[in-house]
TrEMBL record:
<dbReference type="InterPro" id="IPR050109">
    <property type="entry name" value="HTH-type_TetR-like_transc_reg"/>
</dbReference>
<feature type="domain" description="HTH tetR-type">
    <location>
        <begin position="8"/>
        <end position="68"/>
    </location>
</feature>
<keyword id="KW-0238">DNA-binding</keyword>
<dbReference type="InterPro" id="IPR036271">
    <property type="entry name" value="Tet_transcr_reg_TetR-rel_C_sf"/>
</dbReference>
<keyword id="KW-0805">Transcription regulation</keyword>
<protein>
    <submittedName>
        <fullName>Transcriptional regulator</fullName>
    </submittedName>
</protein>
<dbReference type="GO" id="GO:0000976">
    <property type="term" value="F:transcription cis-regulatory region binding"/>
</dbReference>
<dbReference type="InterPro" id="IPR025996">
    <property type="entry name" value="MT1864/Rv1816-like_C"/>
</dbReference>
<feature type="DNA-binding region" description="H-T-H motif">
    <location>
        <begin position="31"/>
        <end position="50"/>
    </location>
</feature>
<dbReference type="Pfam" id="PF00440">
    <property type="entry name" value="TetR_N"/>
</dbReference>
<dbReference type="InterPro" id="IPR009057">
    <property type="entry name" value="Homeodomain-like_sf"/>
</dbReference>
<dbReference type="InterPro" id="IPR001647">
    <property type="entry name" value="HTH_TetR"/>
</dbReference>
<keyword id="KW-0804">Transcription</keyword>
<dbReference type="Pfam" id="PF13305">
    <property type="entry name" value="TetR_C_33"/>
</dbReference>
<dbReference type="GO" id="GO:0003700">
    <property type="term" value="F:DNA-binding transcription factor activity"/>
</dbReference>
Length: 227
C-alpha cells in the first residue's frame, strides 16, 4: 500500500539502531521500545523478527564480528606474518575503541541479563557464532603462515591463534577499563612489547620480532590513513 514503509530491511535497521544506541548511550538504552523508535519501527517488529532483546543482541554481536572480519580483511598479506598479525591486533583495538559497548557485547563482557548467552550452546555468542569464526579465520591463516615461515616452533596454528587472541583481547579489555592511565603511550609501552615477548616465546629472534612489530605498526598506519 502506498505510503506504508517496506519492512524487508527491518532486521538490518533494528540491528543498526541497536549498534548506534550502544555507541551513544550504552547498554542501558537497549530496550524493545528504544530500539524500535531509533529504527522507525514498532516494538512488534522487534519481537516479530527476533523474538526478544536477547536474540536481537545476538544478531548485533554477529554484526560486530562481521565488521571486525571486514576490518581484518583490509590488512594485506605480506611476506612478514608477524607484522600482519600485529597490524590485525591494532585493528582489533581500533574497532573496540570505536564502540566499546559493542565490543563488550561481542565478547560476553556485559553483566546485563539480556546480554547473557542463550541457553542453547549453538546460539551462544563468541566462539560459537559463524560470524566470529569468519573473523577469526584471518588470525588463524596468518598464524599458519607464521608457522610455515619457521619463525614459530611447529605447532597447530589454531593453538597460536587462540593464545594471540587471548593476549590481544586481554590488553584491549584492560585498556578500555582505563588500567593503563599511567602510561603515556600504552600501545608502545605495553601492547607492542607484549607482542614481541609473545613472538620470542614462540621461537622468534628478539631483534627480528621487534622489527616485525615496528613494520606491523607502519602497515596499520598506512591502512588507517587510506580509510
Amino acid at each position: 500500500m502506498a505510503g506504508r514503509p517496506k519492512l524487508d530491511d527491518a532486521p538490518e535497521r533494528l540491528v543498526r539502531a541497536a549498534v548506534g544506541l550502544l555507541a551513544e548511550q550504552g547498554p542501558s538504552a537497549i530496550k524493545a521500545r528504544t530500539v524500535a523508535s531509533a529504527s522507525g519501527l514498532s516494538t512488534m517488529v522487534v519481537y516479530g523478527h527476533f523474538g526478544g532483546i536477547p536474540e536481537l543482541m545476538r544478531a548485533v554481536a554477529d554484526h560486530g564480528f562481521r565488521e571486525l572480519g571486514a576490518a581484518f580483511a583490509q590488512v594485506p598479506v605480506t611476506d612478514d606474518p608477524t607484522a600482519d598479525l600485529f597490524a590485525m591486533a591494532l585493528t582489533c583495538r581500533r574497532v573496540a575503541h570505536e564502540n566499546p559497548h559493542l565490543y563488550d557485547l561481542m565478547f560476553g563482557l556485559s553483566t546485563r541479563a539480556t546480554y547473557r548467552p542463550l541457553s542453547d550452546a549453538d546460539l551462544r555468542l563468541s566462539g560459537h557464532s559463524p560470524a566470529f569464526q569468519d573473523a577469526h579465520v584471518h588470525i588463524t591463516a596468518a598464524c599458519r603462515r607464521l608457522v610455515d615461515s619457521g619463525r614459530a616452533e611447529r605447532q597447530e596454528p589454531e593453538v597460536i591463534a587462540a593464545q594471540l587472541w587471548s593476549l590481544v583481547h586481554g590488553y584491549v579489555t584492560l585498556e578500555l577499563a582505563e588500567h593503563f592511565g599511567e602510561f603515556e603511550d600504552p600501545v608502545v609501552q605495553v601492547m607492542r612489547p607484549m607482542g614481541v615477548n609473545f613472538s620470542v616465546g614462540l621461537g622468534d629472534k628478539r631483534e627480528r620480532a621487534e622489527a616485525s612489530h615496528e613494520a606491523g605498526a607502519r602497515l596499520y598506519d598506512s591502512i588507517v590513513q587510506g580509510r
